[in-house]
Write a structure and sequence with these properties.
280 residues, Alpha-Beta Plaits, two-stranded parallel sheet, 10 helices
């Protein structure tokens, strides 16, 4: 067990594995942790225990670091049982019985004399697997994660922040928000709201950022990116209007100074990022 301070300042030779019990907010910390296995030209394995709620952050890290993170599904309950039975029976077969007295064996045989071999095996397994059975309520723990990814795919252009919004209001408003800005930016397209109907929420400021759909970013990507590299909080980020080549992000007024100062040297995949106040 180690902190991020240890990941930066303590040298451990021949470290083969790093396990991230939880993902850091900043991809730089993730890189420092994982890099502990690569000292002196050596190689190792970095593992992360993640939940469906971490999928967006994983995608964000992949974009920033430029590395594809392999997804390994949680084993099925049936697979865990089979493996445990294999280990358990192997342990029984290799167990040394020299310390058992004849009296002890006879006492047990007398107690088990009315049980068939099958019944005895079932009871032994029941004792061994009782705790595991209570902890795991369903066979496939990956179902929730798959469902989450499907929802993310269908909602990838959703422009409301997932951290501080009423889901019902988002569904009502989300259909009308995304549009391109071009030569006819003041003229609404068919089925769109007029430009003047887009309103900034109270105490929020609109910011332009030169990242959009063409960069394969989503609202959650922008939230993670800005919170990690500028120091503004996730809750201070409001509505996000995702366009083809840029996005409009609403930020709480209390965070504008910090955002503007931190964004001066901001880069995404080596490209200079422009963040400036804008109006919708």
């Amino acid at each position: 067990m180690a902190t991020d301070v240890a990941a930066r300042g303590i040298d451990v030779d021949n470290l083969t594995h790093v396990v991230h019990y939880s993902l850091p907010d900043n991809p730089e910390y993730y890189t420092h942790r994982s890099g502990r296995t690569a000292r002196a030209g050596k190689k190792g394995t970095s593992l992360a225990i993640v939940t469906p709620q971490d999928i967006g952050r994983i995608r964000f890290f992949e974009k920033i670091i430029g590395v594809e993170i392999t997804h390994i599904k949680v084993p099925l309950q049936s697979q865990m049982y089979n493996k445990k039975i294999e280990k358990f029976t192997e342990k029984i077969m290799n167990e040394d019985t020299v310390e058992l007295t004849d009296e002890m064996v006879e006492k047990a045989m007398e107690a088990f004399q009315f049980l068939t071999k099958e019944d005895l095996v079932k009871k032994i397994l029941a004792i061994e697997f009782d705790k595991l059975h209570k902890k795991v309520e369903r066979d496939d723990l990956n179902i929730l994660g798959d469902d989450r990814r499907k929802r993310d795919k269908t909602q990838k252009d959703r422009i409301s922040s997932p951290y501080d919004r009423d889901p019902k209001k988002d569904r009502d408003r989300g259909r009308d928000r995304v549009r391109e800005r071009g030569a006819d930016k003041d003229k609404p397209r068919e089925g769109e709201r007029p430009r003047e109907e887009y309103r900034t929420r109270p105490n929020m400021v609109n910011y332009f950022i030169n990242l959009g759909k063409i960069d394969d970013v989503y609202p959650v990507t922008l939230i993670e990116f800005l919170s990690s590299f500028t120091g503004i909080t996730k809750k201070s980020i409001g509505d996000i209007y995702l366009h083809k080549k840029h996005s409009i992000i609403q930020v709480d007024k209390s965070m504008t100074k910090r955002l503007e100062e931190s964004a001066r040297h901001l880069k995404f995949k080596g490209r200079k990022i422009i963040v400036k106040q804008d109006s919708i």
